[in-house]
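REQUEST FORM: STRUCTURE PREDICTION
Request ID: SP-0412
Submitted by: Lab K.M.
Chain count: 1
Length (residues): 199
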Amino acid sequence: MKNSISKMVIAVMVCFVFGVGVAKASTPGPIDADFVLNNSSYHANFGNNSITGAFEDHYTFTAIDPMTGSGGFSAISGFSGFGGFGLGGIGQIGFDVIFSSLGLWDVTDSSNHVLVSDRTVNGFILGFGGFSGLTNGHNYDLVISGELGNGRTSGSYSGNIEIAPVPEPEFYVMLLVGLVLVVFAARSTRRSAYQPTYG
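STATUS: Completed
RESULT:
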C-alpha cells in the first residue's frame, strides 16, 4: 500500500511539473482554458503578479462533465526581499500579500449567487478550501481577497484548483504538491524578472 502511494505521489509530481508550464493565469479573469486533465483530476493554476494594494480577484469557469466532482483550491503569497543593501542594511525579506478570504461561488443565477465553499484566512499568507461537488453547466467564481504585506509596494500570489470526479485520499496530497510546484515556478519567474543591473 505504501509503495503504491509513493508511486502515485511521484507520478503526480511529474504531472504537475509538466502542468505548471502549461497554463497559468497571471491576472484575474476566466480560467476555463487553463484546466488540464492530470490522470483522473482537472487542474488549473492561477495567480496575480501585479498587486499594488488591497485586492479582490475573480477567477471564473464553467463546470462541464466530467469536471463536476469534489475538489479543493489553495493560494500562497509570493516571497521576496526588498530594501536592497543600502544604508538601511539588508532590507526586509518576507511574503508579498496577506489573504483575508478565499471563496468559491456558484454565479449561474446572476441575481442569487450561492456560496459553495468559503475559507476565511485573515492574516495568513496561505489558504486552502474544499468543495463537495460542482453542477454540470454551472458558472463558478473563485474569489480571493487580501492586501499587500507590511512595507510592500507591489506583490504577487499563486494558486491552484483541483476537481476530481471521484476524490481519493491522495487528492489532497496532489493539491499540496501542485501548490508547492506553483510557488517554485513563480519564484523562478520573479527572480528572472527582477535581476539587478550593474553600471
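NOTES: The longest helix spans residues 170-193.
Reviewed by: T.R.
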